[in-house]
Write a structure and sequence with these properties.
The complex is a heterodimer of chains A (132) and B (67). Chain A is mainly alpha-helical and 132 residues long. Chain A is built from five helices and no strands. Chain A is elongated. About 6% of the residues of chain A have low confidence. With 67 residues, chain B is an all-alpha fold. Chain B contains two helices and no strands. The mean pLDDT of chain B is 80. The chains are: A mainly alpha (132), B mainly alpha (67). At the A-B interface, α1, α2 and α3 of A face α1 and α2 of B.
Amino acid sequence: MIRKRLNVTVLVMMLMVPLVNTSCANNPPPNLSPAALTAWNNTRVQGVLDLIRNTVDDGTKTVPPLFSGATDVKVATWHKSALTVIHATGNGWKPVVLTSLDELAKDLPPSEQDRLVPYIRLAKTIISEVKQ
Amino acid sequence: MTPLEQIIISELPAAIRLVRSAFVKQNPDLPPPTDAEVIAVYESGYLSSVAKDDRIISEHSDDINNG
């Protein structure tokens, strides 16, 4: 039953990926300076990285928990590092953050990896669309 | 309610907001956001998000310290 529900979740997330993909790079407000355009793009990326962090954090509070406390700390630590790199670098952070997402997925127990992979794929899609 | 249903219910609104924001068209009657507004949104989002990370890490450190 849980596997069926997980497949539904994966399906929903995979449907969202192409929806985001078709429009992600096309809606920045007009006439933004380069710095503001960077901030706009980084806000969108930050949002999807927040979604990964919040999903895991919420998942530690379900009964029974979907994610362990150790994973919660691991993901929060990764999230903070990724946001700090993006904030400090402004541009040029894409390869680092994309690689870190792959490393994060590999570092999780298999059952938790399965649950988080759709969100990681969504994040990678949004990040790939960012023009730098 | 299964744990997965709980988490879907809690996170799906955020995920939907994220996707919908990709489709929002600029209202021609409203002025576009200024550079300062865009940068302020980003900076405040960054600070609050990092603060939440610190809170999560700290909570679990407390759990470990309290046994």
